[in-house]
Amino acid sequence: MSQYLNARYQTLEVYTPGEQPQDQVYTKLNTNESPYPASPRVVASIGKKELEDLRLYSDPDLKPLVAKLAEVYGLSPAQVFVSNGSDDILNFAFMAFSGQPGRAAFPDITYGFYQVFADLHQVTPTVIPLREDFSVDYRQYLNLDQMIVLANPNAQVGRALPLREMEEIIASNPDHVVVVDEAYVDFGAESCVPLIAKYPNLLVVQTFSKSRSMAGARLGFALGNAELIADLNRIKYSTNPYNVNRLTMAAGVAALEDQAYYDENCKKIMSTRAWTVDAMEKLGFTVFPSLANFVLAGHPAMDGEAIYRELKRRGILVRHFSTPRIQNYNRITIGSPAQMALLVDTLREILGGETS
């Protein structure tokens, strides 16, 4: 840290991304990427002309992509915001909607960026503990009189609230924005998008990173009342109006035109998730119910960090968190059937004390 860094940022606890080690080839089950490639139509969308046109700035309004998202989700283009990954949008939401002085409520175990953004923008957090079973008690979010940020399904755990409970939260906080982070919604949870017409304080945030196999493209979008979207555009145009590149926009449109391909992949991942949960429970693991493309699992005979380290030594990456409430568990991305079979076989060896 230099002597010149603004004192406001000197104590920031930064977000720690999932490992991307380059020392060997790993089976990567740590960052919730899709095991399936982008669709053939997406691959074909990046042609010679698009590469040659990189000399030109991208369209800051992203008109083709915004129009396609509006069509897919049954909204008007004025109700769609697109940015450089959903993290970008969540950052803008903390800037735009947390109030003055800023306040925001979110769970204690959730996506780590919420706390980072609160600290970054000097927003006072209301951190609400999950229940003992790591589920969200929706009643604790009723009538809070501050911005609410909920990942549904919840990051790190995968549990999801039903639409009726989400609606109660949104309806009971009419004077504040409720941000619903639906990064994992396509793996079996209920989306809040149908509530947008009814509640002007609802902002739904989604991403192309998970179900649409485009984590490396960095593309996210938000859906909501046109006035909320205009607010986000005000922040975007005050920071970086060209924040989605030409290639990513083309790939995004192509992905939306090939939705059947991604729907089929989601079904495959959900089926593999069910197989993985069953196999791990037979090994004695506690696996929490998940409607995401990952599971949170722990074993009574071996602590979470030890399992993480032994798996890594054997070439399999999972995500371990030092947060006290979940330090005895690991978050495991649902990969291909072959990857999950390898994981289960390796866990069986580890728990059986076999050496590799």
UniProtKB/TrEMBL annotation:
Q: Which reaction does it catalyse?
A: L-histidinol phosphate + 2-oxoglutarate = 3-(imidazol-4-yl)-2-oxopropyl phosphate + L-glutamate
The record's section on PROSITE patterns has: AA_TRANSFER_CLASS_2 (PS00599)
Pathway it works in: Amino-acid biosynthesis; L-histidine biosynthesis; L-histidine from 5-phospho-alpha-D-ribose 1-diphosphate: step 7/9
Q: Which residues carry this modification: N6-(pyridoxal phosphate)lysine?
A: K210
Q: Show the CDD domains listed in the entry.
A: AAT_like (cd00609)
Q: Which residues form the Aminotransferase class I/classII large domain?
A: 27-346
Instruction: Name the EC number(s).
Output: 2.6.1.9
The protein's enzyme class: transferase
Transferase found in the keyword field: yes
Q: Name the Gene Ontology biological process terms.
A: L-histidine biosynthetic process
* Example GO molecular function: histidinol-phosphate transaminase activity
Tell me where the signal peptide lies: none
Q: Which cofactors are required for activity?
A: pyridoxal 5'-phosphate
Matching entries from InterPro entries are given as: Aminotrans_II_pyridoxalP_BS (IPR001917), Aminotransferase_I/II_large (IPR004839), HisP_aminotrans (IPR005861), HistidinolP_aminotransfase (IPR050106), PyrdxlP-dep_Trfase (IPR015424), PyrdxlP-dep_Trfase_major (IPR015421), PyrdxlP-dep_Trfase_small (IPR015422)
Q: Which UniProt key words apply to this protein?
A: Amino-acid biosynthesis, Aminotransferase, Histidine biosynthesis, Pyridoxal phosphate, Transferase
Tagged with keyword Amino-acid biosynthesis:
yes
Q: Which family, according to UniProt? A: Belongs to the class-II pyridoxal-phosphate-dependent aminotransferase family. Histidinol-phosphate aminotransferase subfamily.
The cross-references to HAMAP family, in alphabetical order and at most eight, read: HisC_aminotrans_2 (MF_01023)
Checking PANTHER family in the record gives:
HISTIDINOL-PHOSPHATE AMINOTRANSFERASE, HISTIDINOL-PHOSPHATE AMINOTRANSFERASE 2
Q: How does the annotation summarize its subunit structure?
A: Homodimer.
Instruction: Identify this protein by name.
Output: Histidinol-phosphate aminotransferase
Gene assigned in the entry? hisC
